[in-house]
Specification:
Layout (H helix, E strand, L loop, with lengths): L2 E5 L3 H14 L4 E5 L2 H10 L4 E5 L7 H10 L7 E5 L3 H7 L7 E4 L3 H22 L1
Parallel strand pairs: 1-2, 1-3, 3-4, 4-5
InterPro entries: Bact_response_regulator, CheY-like_superfamily, Sig_transdc_resp-reg_receiver
Organism: Geobacter pickeringii
Protein name: Histidine kinase
Length: about 130
């Protein structure tokens, strides 16, 4: 419980997010994959509590990664799409109900939403561990 996979070709952003999660939500386990094609094998193994996917990546974009995740059984409520694009654009690409959330990864207000999600995951992981 508490397993998060971050799929983002922006290695600096991924490292920063992983470090943040480890510091403030130490029960959660975080895996980072900068290659979306390689990430498919991690997704296929399942057992993910949260999948954070960058929308714009080379070779395989975030929409394709999210679609694959849903096809292999990852619940849509466990998928978050991150992007530098505006929210209106993202909502057009991912209508309500196709994933848990779409977020601009550089807007500080979005951090509060991620914190609520991470906090909820940590509470669930702690309850299952104890």
């Amino acid at each position: 419980m508490g397993k998060i996979l971050i799929v983002d070709d922006d290695k600096a952003f991924s490292r920063l997010l992983k470090s943040y999660i480890k510091q403030y939500y130490p029960i959660l386990r975080v895996q980072v994959c900068s290659d979306p094609v390689r990430a498919l094998s991690f997704i296929r193994k399942g057992n993910l509590d949260l999948l954070l996917v960058d929308y714009e990546m080379p070779v395989l974009d975030g929409e394709k990664v999210a679609n694959y995740a849903r096809e292999v059984g990852v619940d849509k409520s466990r998928i978050i799409i991150l992007s530098s694009r505006e929210a209106d654009f993202l909502h057009e690409q991912f209508p309500l109900g196709t994933c848990l959330a779409v977020m601009n990864k550089y807007e500080t207000a979005q951090k509060a939403v991620l914190d609520m999600i991470f906090s909820s995951l940590q509470r669930k992981a702690a309850a299952n561990a104890g």
